[in-house]
Design goal:
The chain is α/β, with parallel strands linked by helices. Helices cover 32% and strands 21% of the residues. It is built from 16 helices and 24 strands.
Length: 512
């Protein structure tokens, strides 16, 4: 720290001398070059190894990452690989989410570099190994809003945050896009990184596009940044829209999307100034396309669209059908470019998006949310985290946050996936409590929560096929029979946290 202050003092003295010079055009050009050189000698610039050493990171501490590059992320593997090389042990990895690309973490868990994980989701080989009991400590799962709240309250204390940015200047003003010609990556909103940047003890920005000061507008301010590391690549932008974030061509998903749009139109909430969010999953994302024509026909405009913003949302905004876009995560490059260029496209932190205890949280003002599900039960409880085979294969995301706070929460899911029922007696893992769910849309019929009789009547009056949730369960069983119980063991491999910080459910290991 003393070295950092000493270097900063030297730079201050150099800048002071330049400011006092009386200069002509020639001297101006000389001073301009000197200023550029001065920027590039910023005391915050460091190699990754130097930044780690200077951060004061020690064994047993907590490191954090964001997942805005989704399947294209390169920061987690790069940093944890370097930490392993440097001999660190017993670290707590607190990522906003983890995916298939993070399979190298398996070796780091086995070698004792990582012994704890907190996240919103797990996918791929890493998730499979953890589901089978790879870790001694259970993974702690939080919703996006719950993670933001836990960071702000100190329940999830971050010692060093390693945050990938599409561009940064030498002082740490960083964002998820770049205005330079050398831009290598773009991810758009850094909403899930913003709580880390604000509350972590130390913040390290990693970027593959180091630009001249000042990098504005910026998502992360230099005031919150301790070190800036230039790397070859922070992420592959082409993989932002991979996995669950897709433009579906599946006929069943299209049918579910059309039905969800009809539920919205006839719900009583489809009025001028309504607000909307769609979750991940083909059907829930596609519903916006089918809502568009009804908005045009009835001359209805939305006040804002929230959450993970897609190209479909951007199109409706550009057509004047949605007033503003509130973006915690850009789900494709079109949305990321829109955030860069459009002042009505606003970036928000996870706390501003979905924190239960933040008064200005956007979900508090959300009218309609369309969400997907792996399974739902007869009490309208929803599971989006553990698959029908007992393997963790998804993410909580903002599912329970938006369902709880929205005026109308709609779940879209098929009755069956292959030979597996999606409407069951009891969900494998409770993620979103049934009291937060209003409607479940399947291709065989639409179930409405008994607590919303007025909604059921409105949808019946519109000619929609309203059925009892128990009928949907029985229909699924009549087609495929009763599945054998899953071979869960006794080891707890995951703990699901509620929005209020209490334990909602636990996940047991699945046996081969």
């Amino acid at each position: 720290m003393n070295d950092l202050k000493s270097r900063a003092a030297q730079i201050q003295e150099q800048a002071h001398k330049m400011n006092k010079e009386v200069f002509n055009q020639a001297s101006y050009e000389k001073i301009h070059q000197q200023r550029n050189d001065l920027q590039m000698s910023s005391p915050k610039l460091a190699t990754l190894e130097d930044a780690i050493r200077k951060s004061g990171l020690k064994d047993g501490m907590t490191i954090s990452f964001h997942h805005h590059f989704r399947g294209g992320d390169k920061v987690v593997n790069l940093v944890v690989g370097k930490l392993a090389e440097m001999g660190f042990k017993n670290l707590h990895l607190a990522a906003s989410s983890l995916s298939d690309v993070h399979a190298p973490l398996i070796d780091h868990i086995r070698n004792g570099v990582i012994t704890k994980i907190s996240t919103s989701g797990l996918r791929g080989t890493l998730a499979k190994e953890i589901s089978k009991g790879l870790m001694e400590e259970p993974v702690v799962f939080r919703s996006h809003g719950g993670r933001g709240s836990a960071i702000a309250s100190g329940d999830l204390h971050i010692d060093v945050a390693f945050l990938g940015a599409s561009s940064s200047d030498p002082l740490g003003n960083a964002c998820g896009y770049s205005r330079s010609e050398n831009a290598k990556s773009i991810c758009g909103s850094l909403g899930y990184a913003l709580p880390d940047a604000r509350y972590a003890d130390k913040v390290v920005i990693l970027t593959d596009d180091l630009v001249a000061y000042p990098n504005t507008p910026n998502s992360i301010s230099e005031r919150d940044v301790d070190y800036v590391v230039e790397v070859d690549s922070v992420g592959d932008s082409s993989k932002i829209a991979s996995g669950a974030i897709r433009d579906t061509k599946n006929p069943r998903d299209i049918l579910l999307a059309q039905l969800a749009a009809k539920v919205i139109v006839n719900s009583g909430y489809f009025k001028n100034g309504f607000s909307i969010q769609t979750g991940s999953g083909g059907a829930s994302l596609a519903a916006v396309k089918y809502l568009r024509q009804s908005m045009i026909d009835r001359d209805i405009k939305a006040s804002f669209a929230l959450g993970g913003i897609t190209a479909h949302m951007v199109k409706l905004h550009e057509e004047g059908l949605i007033g503003r876009l509130i973006d915690v995560q850009s789900f494709d490059k079109v949305a990321a470019e829109s955030l860069k260029n459009n002042p009505m496209h606003k970036e928000v932190s996870a706390n501003e998006y979905a924190s239960a205890d933040e008064p200005g949280s956007a979900v508090h003002y959300l009218d309609i949310v369309i969400l997907s599900a792996l399974e739902a039960d007869v009490n309208f409880n929803v599971n989006v985290l553990v698959g029908s085979d007992g393997i963790i294969r998804g993410a909580i995301g903002g599912h329970p946050d938006t369902a709880a706070d929205s005026a109308l929460s709609i779940i879209v899911c098929p009755l069956l996936r292959g030979r597996i029922p999606c409407i069951v007696d009891e969900v494998t893992t409770l993620i979103t409590p049934g009291k937060s769910v209003d409607v479940i849309v399947t291709e065989y019929g639409i179930a409405v929560n008994p607590g919303r009789p007025e909604l059921a009547e409105a949808l019946k009056a519109a000619g929609l096929n309203i059925v009892d949730i128990n009928w949907l369960r029985d229909k699924a069983l009549s087609i495929i029979g009763t599945p054998a119980p899953l071979p869960f063991g006794d080891k707890v491999v995951g703990v699901v946290m509620n929005r209020d910080g209490s334990v909602l459910d636990v996940i047991k290991n699945i046996e081969d």
